[in-house]
């Protein structure tokens, strides 16, 4: 009997090991395949953002075509009136014989139109190593070789470059100019704004990692909390007065106030600590006695993070800040209007959908009695979350865009687009919020009812705060999903080409309703024949991805913050 | 009268309910169902003022259900319904139009698992007070300190009032929950196995606390530990299969029970 059991144990153990190994190997393999595809994806998006310049092949000549040719032209001169080369010289590399023979050809583009000269290639090689041609004037490379010739630009402005000679070969579509604090126009920040941020940063460091030394000066502020408060308010007002009502100065003013509050809370905590008969040497205990420490730190962190966004006055990314130029100047165009369009559509969608959806979720989870009607509504919501986005586009077209019937007649405007996107996000947010509310433990509800809360107090004070991380994550993920949607907006009527910044309320008050968003912009740019536009589309894709990453990071930060508050 | 269930002779709920002193709460003929399943059968029980009443019995006998009916916590369970009457003086707790907020304010509850709010220790205690009164900052500070002191936890948390309540150890959390309950000055405190998730030292602390609390409050405690019931309570009710088999003074129950079933349960010779 014992032997039988041992045998069984052995057998089951070997089987278990095989299954275990096969299972983990299979999982690892599928994981690697997944990663491989992700890397390829990122690679494929990234490659086109490096500008390739002129590339192509000259077909081999034959008895029917004794001379095959290759057309070239540059839009803007790279030679000034004195005959000097601006920026890098334009050099083409011609290679044949499997790379055995390599010849270089320098092209000088002058401002005089119509000047042209053809270049010949035969067994003896290239007829000239330098050619002078006019701007926007075609010239030919002609070959009588029976071999294929590879043409590749290795230096200088690309054919579609603008007057400044940008971009050049092998540069990126997106260029960044960083001037920290000081730009060509002078100082970007008011010194007092900078001081506000700095003081906030210092306070933050003291509160995060208090040490005896850093706390010593704060001891002098005992009992002076009023002075600190008034001082911070005065500094905030001065900041606003000097900087005017701009975002940057408003942020700095809030920074002063926040720093004031943090100093007061810290001194209060220190006093409390000393009343307990402890000394400031026990700095680790300080964090326990500063009220709302985590919350204050989070706001300070967010504010400092937001303040770095206002360096764009100093960080110049033409790709984000330039408008669409014209069809012949792809590289100097930017996604400004699409970028703003996306921001506005998202903002409107958020304002419309988040409060309503959270309300619906609370009603369904906390208030509605379980009945056939609630079940039906629940099923409807679940199904709506899976409806294809184009259908929401049709809905938006009927309800928001068109006039007459049930249509609101907003036209193909940002408002109509934002409302459509909001409606699309609603079921997703409702489901995520319901899930979050459901995961709030019953014991929390019971303890709240136990101290005599009404249902609304339980919901407002306990259930909602506990569910907040889940609700916020759900909302932000829904937002980042609709940010990438193009289909519904094609139906609602996003334009291919928008020359001006969008006007968010044009749907109601009249004005220019034209708008576009980044995904639509990408779609239209990829359908242009010119290769340059494809590079632009790739760069726009990367911008979109970065925007998504930023949004999701915010979701993660918020979730971590709230979770820490709930669990630690 | 008695009934035979699963080979066990189970008597009907007892009517022998004499207590010394003032009756704080009176439970009369309480029948309770979860959907179609009956959980309490005609339970009657007087709760003596400023004393500790313990409810003992095997798992699933309806102790917690009975306790949760007293402050109408069972109303949160949609499938639960009941008949009978619970009254506190003139106030009929089980009335349809009863003010649940007022009832729960007057009858506080401490749960089996410590469940402080995910707020600071200070706010945990202050929250209930703020709900029912508009105290000034100073009054609130006083109430918080007094409640935490009475729950015998003040010395441990005095210098970390702004830490999360959930960051305390299990025993401390349970005492915090008791502080939260006594901060709103209820008349009755219901305790649903308050020590079942705690180690012996924390249990001893809570038991000591219960003896202290009965000077000011009426305490009803559900417990699985018979020794605990013997140590802390003045009256004990033994429940079995939804019936109040026997109710009497604790000394009487533990030394000379009237019912055979009770005797077998407290001596540990039970199914």
Short description, anyone?
The complex is a heterodimer of chains A (568) and B (271). Chain A has 568 residues and is of the alpha+beta class.
Write structural notes for this entry.
The complex is a heterodimer of chains A (568) and B (271). Chain A is of the alpha+beta class and 568 residues long. Chain A has 18 helices and 15 strands. Chain A has helices spanning 2-46, 191-208, 212-219, 225-243, 247-275, 286-289, 293-308, 318-321, 336-367, 372-384, 389-401, 414-438, 442-450, 455-483, 487-492, 506-509, 518-526, 531-567; strands at 55-58, 68-72, 90-96, 101-110, 119-122, 125-126, 130-134, 139-143, 149-155, 177-178, 182-183, 186-187, 315-316, 403-404, 407-408. Chain A is globular. The two termini of chain A are 53 Å apart. The model of chain A has no long low-confidence stretch (mean pLDDT 84). Chain B is α/β, with parallel strands linked by helices and 271 residues long. Chain B contains ten helices and twelve strands. The model of chain B has no long low-confidence stretch (mean pLDDT 87). Classes of the chains: A alpha+beta (568), B alpha/beta (271).
Output the structural class of chain A: alpha+beta
Tell me what the CATH architecture of the largest domain in chain A is: Orthogonal Bundle
Distance between the termini of chain B: 22 Å
Element order, helices and strands of chain B?
A: EEEEEHEEHEHHHHEHEHEEHH
Shape of chain A: globular
The gross shape of chain B turns out to be: globular
Number of strands of chain B: 12
Please state roughly what percent of the residues of chain B sit in beta strands, choosing from under 5%, 5-15%, 15-25%, 25-35%, 35-45% or over 45%: 25-35%
Computed CA radius of gyration of chain A, to the nearest angstrom = 32 Å
- Mean pLDDT of chain A, rounded to whole units? 84
Strand content of chain A: 5-15%
Describe the oligomeric state of these chains in a short phrase.
heterodimer
Q: In the residues of chain A, how many domains can be counted?
A: 3
Provide the low-confidence segments of chain B as ranges. Answer: none
Instruction: Enumerate how many helices of chain A there are, as a single number.
Output: 18
DSSP helix fraction of chain A: 55-70%
Number of helices of chain B: 10
CATH superfamily of the largest domain in chain A: MetI-like
């Amino acid at each position: 009997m014992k032997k039988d059991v041992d045998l069984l144990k052995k057998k089951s153990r070997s089987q278990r090991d095989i299954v275990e190994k096969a299972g983990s190997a299979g999982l690892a393999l599928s994981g690697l395949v997944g990663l491989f595809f992700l890397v390829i994806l990122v690679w494929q998006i990234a490659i086109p953002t490096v500008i390739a310049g002129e590339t192509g092949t000259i077909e081999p000549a034959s008895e029917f075509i004794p001379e095959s040719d290759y057309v070239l032209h540059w839009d803007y001169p790279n030679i000034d009136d004195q005959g000097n080369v601006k920026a890098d010289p334009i050099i083409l590399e011609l290679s044949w014989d499997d790379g055995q023979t390599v010849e270089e050809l320098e092209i000088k583009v002058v401002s005089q139109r119509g000047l042209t000269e053809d270049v010949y290639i035969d067994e003896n090689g290239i007829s000239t190593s330098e050619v002078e041609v006019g701007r926007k004037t075609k010239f030919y490379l002609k070959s009588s070789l029976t071999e294929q010739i590879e043409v590749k630009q290795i230096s200088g402005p690309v054919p579609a470059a603008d007057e400044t000679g940008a971009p050049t070969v092998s540069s990126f579509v997106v260029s960044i100019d960083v001037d920290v604090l000081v730009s060509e126009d002078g100082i970007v920040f008011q010194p007092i704004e900078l001081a506000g941020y700095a003081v906030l940063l210092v306070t933050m460091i003291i509160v995060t990692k208090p040490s005896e030394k850093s706390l010593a000066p704060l001891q002098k502020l005992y009992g002076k909390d009023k002075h600190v408060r008034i001082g911070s308010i005065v500094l905030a007002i001065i900041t606003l007065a000097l900087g005017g009502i701009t975002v940057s100065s408003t942020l700095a003013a809030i920074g002063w106030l926040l720093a004031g509050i943090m100093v007061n809370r810290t001194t209060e905590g220190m006093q409390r600590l000393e009343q307990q008969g402890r000394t400031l040497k026990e700095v680790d205990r300080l964090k326990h006695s500063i009220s709302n420490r985590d919350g204050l730190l989070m706001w300070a962190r967010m504010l400092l993070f937001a303040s770095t966004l206002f360096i764009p006055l100093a960080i110049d990314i033409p790709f984000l800040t330039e408008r669409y130029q014209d069809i012949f100047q792809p590289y100097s165009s930017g996604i400004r209007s699409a970028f703003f369009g996306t921001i506005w559509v998202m903002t409107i969608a958020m304002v419309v959908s988040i409060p309503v959806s959270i309300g619906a979720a609370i009603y369904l989870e906390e208030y509605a009695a379980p009945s056939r009607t609630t079940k039906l509504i629940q099923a409807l919501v679940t199904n709506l979350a899976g409806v294809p986005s184009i259908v929401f586009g049709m809905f938006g077209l009927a309800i928001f865009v068109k006039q007459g019937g049930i249509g609101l007649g907003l036209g193909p405007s940002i408002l109509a687009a934002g409302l459509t996107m909001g409606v699309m996000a609603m079921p997703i947010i409702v489901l995520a919020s319901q899930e979050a509310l459901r995961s709030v433990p019953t014991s929390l509800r019971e303890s709240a009812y136990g101290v005599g809360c009404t249902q609304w107090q339980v919901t407002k004070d306990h259930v909602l705060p506990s569910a907040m991380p889940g609700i916020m994550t759900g909302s932000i993920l829904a937002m980042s999903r609709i940010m990438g949607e193009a289909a519904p907006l094609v139906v609602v009527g996003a334009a291919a080409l928008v020359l001006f910044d969008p006007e968010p309320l044009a749907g109601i008050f009249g004005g220019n309703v034209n708008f576009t968003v980044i995904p639509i912009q990408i779609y239209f740019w990829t359908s242009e024949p010119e290769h340059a536009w494809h590079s632009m589309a790739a760069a726009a894709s990367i911008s979109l991805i970065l925007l998504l990453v930023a949004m999701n990071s915010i979701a993660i930060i918020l979730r971590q913050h709230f979770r820490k508050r709930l669990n630690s | 009268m008695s009934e035979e269930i699963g080979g066990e002779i189970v008597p009907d709920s007892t009517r022998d309910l004499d207590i010394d002193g003032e009756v704080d709460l009176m439970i009369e003929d309480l029948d309770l169902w979860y959907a179609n399943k009956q959980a309490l059968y005609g339970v009657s029980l007087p709760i003596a003022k400023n004393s500790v009443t313990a409810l003992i019995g095997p798992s699933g006998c309806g102790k917690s259900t009975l306790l949760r009916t007293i402050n109408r916590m069972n109303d949160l369970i949609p499938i639960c319904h009941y008949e009978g009457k619970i009254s506190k003086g003139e106030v009929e707790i089980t009335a349809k139009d009863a003010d649940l907020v007022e009832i729960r304010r007057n009858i506080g509850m401490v749960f089996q698992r410590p469940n402080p709010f995910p707020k600071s220790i200070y706010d945990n205690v202050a929250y209930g007070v703020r709900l029912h009164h508009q105290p000034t900052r100073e009054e609130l500070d006083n109430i918080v300190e007094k409640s935490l002191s009475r729950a015998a936890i003040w010395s441990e948390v005095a210098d970390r009032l702004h830490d999360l309540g959930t960051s305390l150890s299990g025993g401390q959390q349970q005492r915090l929950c008791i502080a939260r309950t006594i901060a709103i000055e209820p008349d009755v405190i219901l305790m649903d196995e308050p020590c079942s998730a705690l180690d012996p030292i924390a249990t001893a602390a809570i038991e000591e606390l219960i003896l202290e609390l009965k000077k000011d409050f009426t305490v009803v405690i559900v417990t699985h530990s018979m020794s605990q019931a013997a140590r802390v309570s003045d009256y004990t009710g033994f429940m079995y299969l939804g019936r109040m088999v026997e109710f009497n003074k604790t000394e009487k129950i533990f030394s000379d029970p009237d019912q055979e079933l009770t005797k077998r349960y407290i001596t540990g010779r039970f199914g």
